[in-house]
Amino acid sequence: MSANFQELIDRLASLYGIESEYIDIWGNRHLTSLKTKLAILEALGVETGSEEGLRRGLSVFEGKSFLEPVLVRDQGELPQGFTIHLSAKPIPQSFEVEISGSEGKIWSQGFKREELVLSEENGLITCYLPLPDSLPIGYYELRIWGGPGENPTGDSLLVVHPGTVYLPEFLEGEGKTWGLFFPLYALRSRKNWGIGDFRDLKELLPWIGEKLRAGFVGINPLHAIKNRRPYHLSPYFPSSRSYRNFLYLDVEAIPEFRASPQAQRLVKGGSFQRKLETLRSSPLVDYESVATLKLRVLQLLFNAFLEKAHPLRERGFLKYREREGKGLEDFATFQALSEEFPDQVWLEWPQGYQDPQSQEVSSFRESRQQRILFWEYVQWNIDEQLGELRVDSQKWGMPLGLYEDLALGVERCGADTWSNPQLFSLKAELGAPPDGFFPMGQRWGLPPVIPTNLRQERYQSWIYLLRHNLPPGGVLRIDHVMGLFHTFWVPSGMTPKDGAYVRGYPKEVLAILALESHLNKALIVGEDLGTVPTWVRSELSKWGILSSKIFYFERGVDGWPTPPEEYPPLALASINTHDMPTFKGFWELKDIELREELRFYPQVELAEEERRGREDQKRSIVTALRERGLLTSGAESERGLLEAVISWLALTPCKLLILNIWDLLGEEEQQNLPGTIDEHPNWTRKVSQTIEQIMGDSWFAGVAHLVNRLRGG
């Protein structure tokens, strides 16, 4: 390989954001190999088989556009101008600049060439043009003409953002609150259909808000999944992040249920009720069976809607479809096509059906119009019920209402990759470099988003995603928030040890997040655990995004728990996460036993070493709790220890504290064991008590009183 060829690859890699090195969790430096750079460039859509192909890849960057496709400006730092690039002479004698908003043109100005400062570099002439002194936050179209009467020679999305994400007024200064985390799928009740649903959440809201005086309630991601074992049960492995899982619907609360005698007879029938009882009593969620029952009834409700829908319902559905547009139609079409080819993923469908713009798909939409309408109807009802819950949560006194969750990515053969294939690379997957828990590294089966393609589409997919996930007046947790800055790519056919980080355009992505956060008055929490560089955490803080602080991990160099006063205010504190052992499991070393049973440890000695480390950590926790006066001698019962740890976290200045119902119920088994698929019942295990039992247990009120007292609530 010639020196010029290697130099060309290195240059391309840098332009496409492939980072030349990374530092692992042990502080070791890893250089990105030439082989990895070539594989990732190929995954990014660059032809790497020849020098000619590589040079075509360079053309994306070398032929600088007249105007950048996206411009972001901090409202507090206006006026800030922008730069245009002219690749040829003669230079126009004048320029016209126009800015338009949703209501039309709001500003325009002409500039004569002699008024402008021009510079030349590498054959390009650069010209700086000013913007208005002030603009409200929002999205604008910026257009430029190179002379009077000419067609626009450049246009850009102008994003004027507030500089930081939204922070409610009551959380400013020393303000703080707390909430409870209820993984919705895991809830038991006397009325649900074998999986926790919106009815269960509706029942819990008055108790959480009025009785416990909590500030919010957290739930797992509600993204649409395929609801099939073993690979398609995780809410963090969705088919679509913009649309939701119909299993969470309260089917009997849909207005058409009251209007459908057929549906009522079916549900009240002995056979149906016996199936429901079996599903309710099972310790695990049977996703496939629940889906079968709910779809059966939903079809009857849809039939009733078509036959005699109330005019208000008809108008509501029409408005929803108009608002959602092509995104909803594509998702519903994908659902209908998946029924047409039930045993194949979309990459295995006949060629014509793999392209949503093809004639075959167009014909399918016409011939299956009613089935596509059915899937739109289902999503509409989810949207309606979730919207009511968001309003109800605040009505019952919770200032932040719902705390919702956005997964990192989507599965390779899901609805989102089918409807927008140019946005994703199917020749790589997201993952993580080797660390203490996973010495071989991780690959997650999620196709990466191609940063340059997202930017070229002016972030319309990112805006769409945020608008479908930000709960108005609530909280959005962003899983693996480092993904807003860079992601770890593992090329197809290679191992995580061969992977590398690929950088996106964080300033632009974060500017849009900040803007949408303010438009929706939604607080943002970033899950920043694991191998996260200091500079990323610094940027998160600068943008006002809350960090995640886990009690298990917050320890000093001496191994002792970090004192409460040393936690940062701009953070969410918790004992653990869904990927970690419950408090009881942690204290009883159940997680170590489980990983040992599943042969996660390459050597037996590593398990023993972890046991010794855990026992040392437990002793330091007990001593620290006693020294603070939070744990009295002889009070080391399971609940006594848990209350002491909760008190420790409640004393922190962290804006948010969240308590997991799994810990409060004393559950042993964790919700999810990373690195497993069917070796552990991930995302299927239910809590041991029904919501009726939970709400009737006075111990929860005692914990709430303790937290409210310590946090000034």
Describe the model.
By secondary structure, this protein is an alpha/beta fold. It contains 24 helices and 24 strands. The strands form six sheets. Strands 21-18-15-12-11-24-23-22 form an eight-stranded parallel beta sheet. A five-stranded mixed beta sheet has the order 3-10-9-5-6. A four-stranded antiparallel beta sheet has the order 17-16-19-20. Helix 1 (3-15) packs across helix 2 (34-43), helix 1 (3-15) runs parallel beside helix 3 (51-62) and helix 15 runs parallel beside helix 16. It is globular and about 85 Å long. It starts with a helix and ends with a helix.
Detail the topology: elements first, then pairings.
Layout: H1 3-15, E1 21-23, E2 29-31, H2 34-43, H3 51-62, E3 70-74, E4 82-86, E5 94-101, E6 104-112, E7 118-121, E8 124-129, E9 138-145, E10 152-161, E11 177-181, H4 198-211, E12 216-218, E13 223-224, E14 240-244, H5 255-258, H6 261-268, H7 270-281, H8 287-308, H9 311-324, H10 326-340, H11 359-367, H12 369-395, E15 401-406, H13 415-419, E16 428-432, E17 442-443, H14 451-456, H15 460-469, E18 475-478, E19 486-491, E20 500-503, H16 506-520, E21 523-526, H17 534-542, E22 547-550, E23 571-574, H18 583-587, H19 590-597, H20 604-627, H21 638-650, E24 656-660, H22 661-664, H23 691-695, H24 698-710
Parallel strand pairs: 3-10, 11-12, 11-24, 12-15, 15-18, 18-21, 22-23, 23-24
Antiparallel strand pairs: 1-2, 4-8, 5-6, 5-9, 7-8, 9-10, 13-14, 16-17, 16-19, 19-20
Helix pairs in contact: 1-2, 1-3, 4-12, 6-8, 10-12, 15-16, 21-24
